[in-house]
Write a structure and sequence with these properties.
CATH superfamily: Uracil-DNA glycosylase-like domain
Structural class: alpha/beta
EC number: 3.2.2.27
Shape: globular
CATH topology: Uracil-DNA Glycosylase, subunit E
Number of helices: 9
Number of strands: 5
Distance between the termini: 25 Å
CATH class: Alpha Beta
Strand content: 5-15%
Helix content: 40-55%
GO molecular function, one term: 4 iron, 4 sulfur cluster binding
Bound molecules: uracil
Protein name: Type-4 uracil-DNA glycosylase
Catalytic activity: Hydrolyzes single-stranded DNA or mismatched double-stranded DNA and polynucleotides, releasing free uracil
Organism: Candidatus Nomurabacteria bacterium RIFCSPHIGHO2_02_FULL_42_24
Number of domains: 1
Strand order of the largest sheet: 2-1-3-5-4
Length: 193
């Protein structure tokens, strides 16, 4: 089985097995999307309305902004893998609850294990604090974070595109932080072979 087939089978398995209670209110699950050999994985928070309807992550306004930032660093969306901590839309886009994050956590771990990316980028505080509970996004955005975790050991934290979309100063910071990604990748590649 290829890695892409493995990933597909993993999502099929979790569609059945995930015990997240958001299943009851969501239209459908929103699994991660992108190539199984991606070097970079982006982890967002949870699907919003557009994602819930389409079954794909980051396809609404925040997704369009993310696509623009990817283009600005000459990355193609098709070359990166994009997923969320929680795979079902919380009602009215409320914050996901700890038990909802917990219910989806194995799914996230297993998808990232298959991909084994060089770099994992957290989009926003929920994603960051899922793995670095004591860090604040306002303090670590734009920085490399190193720690051995179940999903990898090298991370980069960014403000969430939806939070920055209509906040002028946060938007500027996010755009500037995003531009560091190619350098971060080059730096990692020079000491990880
Ligand atoms: N915000 C997220 O965190 N994830 C999505 O998929 C869309 C918006």
């Amino acid at each position: 089985m290829s890695k892409q087939e493995e990933l597909k089978a993993l999502h099929q398995k979790w569609f059945k097995e995930c015990k997240c209670r958001l299943k009851e209110s969501a239209t459908q699950p929103v699994p991660g999307d992108g190539p199984a050999n991606a070097k970079v994985v982006f982890i967002g928070e949870a699907p919003g309305k557009a994602e819930d309807l389409e079954g794909k992550p980051f396809v609404g306004a925040a997704g369009k902004f993310l696509n623009e930032m990817l283009e600005s660093i000459k990355f193609k969306r098709e070359d990166v893998y994009i997923t969320n901590v929680v795979k079902y839309r919380p009602p009215n886009n409320r914050d996901p609850l700890p038990e909802e994050k917990e219910a989806c956590s194995k799914w996230l771990e297993e998808e990232i294990k298959i991909i084994n990316p060089k770099l994992i980028v957290f989009l926003g505080r929920h994603s960051l604090q899922n793995f670095f509970p004591n860090e604040k996004i306002s303090e670590v955005h734009g920085k490399i974070l190193k720690k051995k975790t179940k999903i990898g050991d090298t991370f980069f934290a960014l403000y969430h595109p939806a939070a920055a979309l209509y906040n002028g100063s946060m938007r500027e910071v996010l755009i500037e932080d995003f531009k560091k990604i190619p350098k971060v990748l080059a730096k990692i590649s020079s000491f990880v072979q």
